[in-house]
Design goal:
InterPro entries: Acnase/IPM_dHydase_lsu_aba_1/3, Acoase/IPM_deHydtase_lsu_aba, Aconitase/IRP2, Aconitase_4Fe-4S_dom. By secondary structure, this protein is of the alpha/beta class. It has 9 helices and 12 strands.
Length: about 260
C-alpha cells in the first residue's frame, strides 16, 4: 500500500523511518519441513471442508504462492552400517507413518503450487539450497513477466542456510507460514542491518567450521539479535558456496534474523 511504499523509499534513501513502522513482506515462496508442514496442510484441508459446508468450491482454498514440503525430520535411523540401511530405514519410515503419506499423496495433486520432496533425498536446507532455490524468481504482473530476487520464509530456524547464495529467507512459525501461503503478508518491522566486512582468505588448514565459530563468537559479542546481517567485502569471493552456506546456516546461533551474502 502507499504507506509501505513511502516507508520503503525513505528506508532505501537512508532517511529516518519510525521504529514502529511495519512492512508488508510478500515472500516469493514458502518452505515447509514435515513436522510443522503436515499440520499446515491439514489446516488447509479443514478449511476446504468448511468452504464446502458454506457452499463454496474446495478449490477456493489454495496456496497463493509456491510451497515446497521436504520430508526429513521424521526419518529415524533403525539400521546402519549396511549397504541396505537406506532402503530399510525408508521402508520403516513409510510403515511407521503410513497415514501421513496417504494424506500427502492426496494433498500433492489437490493443492495448487505444492511440491513434496519424499524422505531419503536429504535435509530440507540442503535440498532447498541445491534444488529448490531459484535465486531469481519470475512472476507475471499485468500480463508482463517480471523478474525479482528469490525470497522465502520457512518453518525451520535454519532456513537461513540459503542466504549463502543471496536468497533472503528465515525461519518462522507454522501460523505465519500458513498465512503467507493464503496470500497474507508477513509483517516485518524496520530492518536493522549489520554489515560484516570479510577481507583476505582462510589460511591453509583452516575450515569453514573454524570461520563460522569465530564469526559466531564475535557477533554474539557485538549483539545482533533480530538484526539482518550482511556479509560484504573482498573476502566474500574467497569463500565457496559450502563455506558461505555454513556461515548462514549458523545464523540462529548468533541470534540474527538472516545472514545474507
Amino acid at each position: 500500500d502507499g504507506t509501505d511504499h513511502d516507508a520503503l523509499v525513505s528506508l532505501a534513501n537512508g532517511e529516518a523511518v519510525s521504529p514502529t513502522t511495519e512492512f508488508s513482506f510478500y515472500p516469493s515462496r514458502v518452505l515447509l519441513q514435515d513436522f510443522t508442514g503436515v499440520p499446515v496442510l491439514v489446516d488447509l484441508a479443514m478449511l476446504r471442508d468448511a468452504a464446502v459446508r458454506g457452499g463454496k468450491p474446495p478449490e477456493s482454498v489454495n496456496p497463493q504462492v509456491p510451497v515446497d514440503l521436504v520430508v526429513d525430520h521424521s526419518v529415524q535411523v533403525d539400521s546402519f552400517g549396511s549397504s541396505q540401511s537406506l532402503r530399510i530405514n525408508l521402508d520403516r519410515e513409510y510403515e511407521r507413518n503410513a497415514e501421513r503419506y496417504r494424506f500427502l499423496r492426496w494433498a500433492r495433486p489437490s493443492f495448487d503450487g505444492l511440491r513434496i520432496v519424499p524422505p531419503g533425498n536429504g535435509i530440507v536446507h540442503q535440498v532447498n539450497l541445491e534444488h529448490l532455490a531459484t535465486v531469481v524468481a519470475e512472476r507475471e504482473v499485468g500480463g508482463e513477466p517480471v523478474a525479482f530476487p528469490d525470497t522465502l520464509i520457512g518453518t525451520d530456524s535454519h532456513t537461513t542456510m540459503v542466504n549463502g547464495v543471496s536468497v533472503l529467507g528465515w525461519g518462522v512459525g507454522g501460523i505465519e507460514a500458513e498465512a503467507v501461503m493464503l496470500g497474507e503478508p508477513y509483517f516485518l518491522g524496520r530492518p536493522q542491518v549489520v554489515g560484516v566486512e570479510l577481507v583476505g582468505s582462510l589460511p591453509e588448514g583452516a575450515t569453514a567450521t573454524d570461520l563460522v565459530l569465530t564469526v559466531t563468537h564475535r557477533l554474539r559479542q557485538k549483539g545482533v539479535v533480530d538484526r539482518f546481517v550482511e556479509f560484504v567485502g573482498p573476502g566474500v569471493s574467497e569463500l565457496a558456496v559450502p563455506d558461505r552456506a555454513t556461515i548462514s546456516n549458523m545464523c540462529p546461533e548468533y541470534g540474527a534474523t538472516s545472514a545474507l551474502f
